[in-house]
Amino acid sequence: MDDIEVEAVAEADLTDPVFIEGLPGVGNVGKLAVEHLLEEFEEATLVRRIYADVFPPQVSLDDGVAELTHAEVHAVETPGDGPDLLLLTGDHQAQSNEGHYHLTDAFLDVAEEFGAERLFALGGVPTGELVDEPSVLGGVTDESMRETLEDAGVEFREDEPAGGIVGVSGLLLGLGGRRGFEAACLMGETSGYLVDPQSAQAVIEVLQDLLEFSVDFEALEDRAEEMKEVAAKIQEMQQQQQQNLPSDDDLRYIG
Amino acid sequence: MDDIEVEAVAEADLTDPVFIEGLPGVGNVGKLAVEHLLEEFEEATLVRRIYADVFPPQVSLDDGVAELTHAEVHAVETPGDGPDLLLLTGDHQAQSNEGHYHLTDAFLDVAEEFGAERLFALGGVPTGELVDEPSVLGGVTDESMRETLEDAGVEFREDEPAGGIVGVSGLLLGLGGRRGFEAACLMGETSGYLVDPQSAQAVIEVLQDLLEFSVDFEALEDRAEEMKEVAAKIQEMQQQQQQNLPSDDDLRYIG
Amino acid sequence: MDDIEVEAVAEADLTDPVFIEGLPGVGNVGKLAVEHLLEEFEEATLVRRIYADVFPPQVSLDDGVAELTHAEVHAVETPGDGPDLLLLTGDHQAQSNEGHYHLTDAFLDVAEEFGAERLFALGGVPTGELVDEPSVLGGVTDESMRETLEDAGVEFREDEPAGGIVGVSGLLLGLGGRRGFEAACLMGETSGYLVDPQSAQAVIEVLQDLLEFSVDFEALEDRAEEMKEVAAKIQEMQQQQQQNLPSDDDLRYIG
Amino acid sequence: MDDIEVEAVAEADLTDPVFIEGLPGVGNVGKLAVEHLLEEFEEATLVRRIYADVFPPQVSLDDGVAELTHAEVHAVETPGDGPDLLLLTGDHQAQSNEGHYHLTDAFLDVAEEFGAERLFALGGVPTGELVDEPSVLGGVTDESMRETLEDAGVEFREDEPAGGIVGVSGLLLGLGGRRGFEAACLMGETSGYLVDPQSAQAVIEVLQDLLEFSVDFEALEDRAEEMKEVAAKIQEMQQQQQQNLPSDDDLRYIG
Fold it and tell me: Region (Disordered): which ranges (chains A, B, C, D) (predicted)?
């Protein structure tokens, strides 16, 4: 196998497609969002598999049948007036520093091959606390893109996220911008502690507005409901633990 | 030295050989199984040594004579009606993520060179507790292979092993399947804490059935007996420690 | 993207330019120094951006606009009689052992391209305690350079810094010397615990003397003042903690 | 710079030279031994410097003059009847798994270039306790070499050292043997806790016998004496600490 191998599974004739990435990351927001789109656009076609020696040396088993770790690109011909979509997802980020660069370049090759000129990298931005109504923060390759995104509800905050954007999402903007793509990162606010379907929904809602498509959210809302129950239980347990701890008053006489 | 070097030690004229891998791993099940086959098929011929810079930078000493870390492939012309065998074993897995991919590709080259079209990757699957009668779990490159394996006693469980199959065993299926090999992984249940000859025997018994050969198990059974004694002593020590700990009753009045 | 990519942003016609490096390091002394020079020489021109897959896979955001991690070289035509300057800075060192070598080679290519024959690598040397009047220690590629530097106040101490000079600064001397550059490292003493603008100033003062330019230090002095207040607060907190600890006298009866 | 660069500093016309390696390792035995030989054979000529991007990215300073990390090969025309010597030493092992392989290959290239057909890799073998009269253990590329070494006092013990020989010393045998060199590893017993000049002397004494040269040991003996004092002080401190611990009797009533 070459270091990176792009397998052509099928072809698709797309009109002005937009490339959307959702690999694992904070709160799994990006991956949840792209997987939800794949479920809702039932006619999505798997067009490319990307194998790479910077993915973990691993197969997953589906009913005992092994599948080598890879990323996948699906093509979606959207029903409305909006552009067609190329949806990238997978189970892993690259396992090395250099790997992130080379893998992102391969993803951009696929985007280019299908004629995509616009990219969206989806992800989460950790807030450190549970978020009731997650905002969606943005990053862009060109200042001219900000206004359209702001109109769709995306917020641009000074120095946020603090460390910039890392991994494939960051490099899709960094390398993509240098290769002439118009790329944006949409980051849903999320606690950073739990998988966050609600944040994924917030990100998709922005995409809906920007790309003129419309999907149902019932599945995501159900999962968000489940996660809220999980979060409530965790909070309850934490409060009980705190009640069992000595209060500040109790500690007053110590040291 | 090249990054990977395959040394041709001898040739062998094999009929429809099956390639069987047993490198170190959980419970050393795969390595024990292949080493047992090598001991029982006394006429095994060492045909290839595989050296690689992703193996540890190390020589082992045999009576003071140094041997560079490598993997070995032996050819076995089986006496019965079953296919001939190519047995791969060694003391190490690759030391890097990419190394697993490149090493596995080199192993597949050897399999191809000798005309093998079928592969078995042998290993263990950790259960976290001592296992009396280890089952053998399976993974395959193609669904059509399941029935034959199930008839030989292999179990296919949904979502097991949970993390898929990692290392060279996983990639023999992942990369092997992509190169057209019919590959299966046979994983003996094992505690994960101890070297497990009994699990190795269970795996070989499946192979015997599938490949129509027959070997003696006395050596493995002796080693399994020894390991059972070791396990019993460990359990005894753990029980003594637990008796010295305060019981739940004792703890009732605390915090 | 290639492993390392040098982007030509602009050209500059420089007279006998001197290449000065200030990447992140101990006390951020080198980076602070070069950034201060860039602020004071207002007419600095960005001439090269250096991208590399050994930088972190990351973009920073400036008002929401993404910028791929890179190092930058600015050209400065100095007003006085001194040589022109090429100023290298950036937010990151290489992330791998080999990366430091390859990145430094790329920096030396840029220096060569602009006709630089002399290099200064700026950095800090950790003393482990707060320093009132930081000395500047030196390292050179050729003994003949020592006298000039000593005349400018640089100290050469036997076996200091103890571990030699690591990272890009070290390799600019190590690889630069082998390529025929006359290279020196100027290391301002610094505690090693805090960002140190005062040490950066000490380093620039040496450069001023050597390269016959003159810059204002108000901005650095203001930042140094702030850092002194931070240091004073930390010392105060430490003293309070120590008062709460048992004294040696109290401990006399123990053990 | 290439990944590995061999700089020809001088040439030497040697008769049947023997290549001897002493890089840092357990007890620094190998490095001490080769450095002692370099001091005693005053007419040693530096013939090759080996630079590599798998060495740390670092320069050392000698009176302020920077020297890029490298390994060195000196040629020694011995006065007696014995063979001439090529002495390899340096401050570092490779920093990566693959690096050990590639670096060793480069060292073997140098040995070959000078016509060496025999190699000695010098090192220490850790015993875990202070050793009064260190034995020298051996490893060889070919069984035929054992008798000569045994006659010179080298011991070959079954399964010792337990983990084989790692790093460049191991690979000089592993890769060297494959390239047709007659290579041996001489490992002086050493505690593993301290730099061990006495063990280095034991190793050199074997070499003296094998290669018919003779050196003075005063410098090594002086250093060994110093290290014995250091070891004695450490033992004294440990004994005092033990006396301050509660005895088993004191503990009898606890738990």
Answer: 236-255
C partners (3+ CB pairs within 8 A) are A, D
Hey, how many other C-beta atoms are within 10 angstroms of the C-beta on B171? 31
Q: Is D65 on the interface with C (CB under 8 A)?
A: yes
Asked if C53 lies within 8 A of A97 by C-beta distance, the reply is: yes
Provide the residue type at C1 as one letter: M
The answer to whether the beta carbons of residues C138 and C156 sit under 8 Å apart is: yes
Cα–Cα dist D32/D201, whole Å:
9
Measure in Å the smallest separation between the Cα of A142 and chain C Cα atoms: 6
pLDDT at B15: 87
Architecture of domain C4-218: 3-Layer(aba) Sandwich (3.40)
CATH architecture of A4-217: 3-Layer(aba) Sandwich (3.40)
> CA–CA separation, A203 vs A217, rounded Å?
12
For chain D positions 87-106, those within 8 Å of chain C (CB to CB) are 95-96
Helix pair C29-40, C197-211: axis angle to 10 deg: 60
Report residue D72 as tokens. 């060195």
Nearest to A66 among B100, B177, B255 (CB): B177
pLDDT tens-place string over residues C66-121:
999 999 999 999 988 899 999 999 999 999 999 999 999 999 999 999 999 999 99
From C147's Cα to the closest Cα of chain D, the distance in A is 11
Please list, residue by residue across A114-135, b when 16 or more beta carbons sit within 10 angstroms of its beta carbon and e when fewer do: bebebbbbbbbbbbeeebeebb
Of residues A54, A63, A68, nearest to B97 (C-beta): A54
Is there a contact between C206 and C160 (Cβ–Cβ < 8 Å)? no
Is residue D246 less than 8 Å (CB to CB) from chain C?
no
Using CB atoms, pick whichever of C94, C97, C173 lies closest to residue D56: C97
Contact A174 C53 (CB under 8 A): no
Contacts of A2 in chain B (CB under 8 A): none
Give the HSE-up count for residue D102: Cα atoms under 13 Å, Cβ half-sphere: 20
Instruction: Return the percentage of chain D with pLDDT > 70, whole number.
Output: 95
Q: Can you list the pairs that C201-204 forms with residues at least 24 positions away whose Cβ atoms lie under 8 Å? A: C201/C33, C201/C36, C202/C133, C202/C134, C202/C135, C202/C136, C203/C29, C203/C30, C203/C33, C203/C122, C203/C136, C204/C33, C204/C36, C204/C37
Size of interface A-C (CB pairs under 8 A): 84
Helix (H) or strand (E) holding A182: strand A182-190
Cβ proximity of C94 and C103 under 8 Å: yes
**Range picked from A13-17, B133-137, B250-254 for highest mean pLDDT:** B133-137
Distance, in Å, from the CA atom of A149 to the CA atom of A155, rounded to the nearest integer, reads 8
Residue in B140, B159, B167 closest to A65 by CB: B140
Residue range B134-183, pLDDT digits in tens: 999 999 999 999 999 999 999 999 888 988 999 999 999 999 999 999 99
Residues of D in contact with B244 (CB under 8 A): 255
> Could you give the ipTM of this predicted complex?
0.90
| Contact status of D8 with chain C (Cβ, < 8 Å) | no
- Beta bridge pairs of residue A74: A46, A87
CA A23 to chain centre: 5
Chain B interface disruption, residue of A6, A50, A59, most B CBs within 10 A: A59
Residues C120, C204 contacting (CB under 8 angstroms): no
Domain B4-215 class, CATH top level: alpha beta
**In this complex, do D1 and C177 lie within 8 Å of one another by their Cβ atoms?**
no
Contact B88, B23 (CB under 8 A): yes
Q: What are phi and psi of D249, to 5 degrees?
A: -60, -45
Whether B8 and chain D come into contact, CB under 8 Å, resolves to no
Q: How does pLDDT run across C39-70, given as a tens digit for each residue?
A: 999 899 999 999 999 999 999 999 899 999 99
Whether D112 has its CB under 8 Å from any CB of chain B: the answer is no
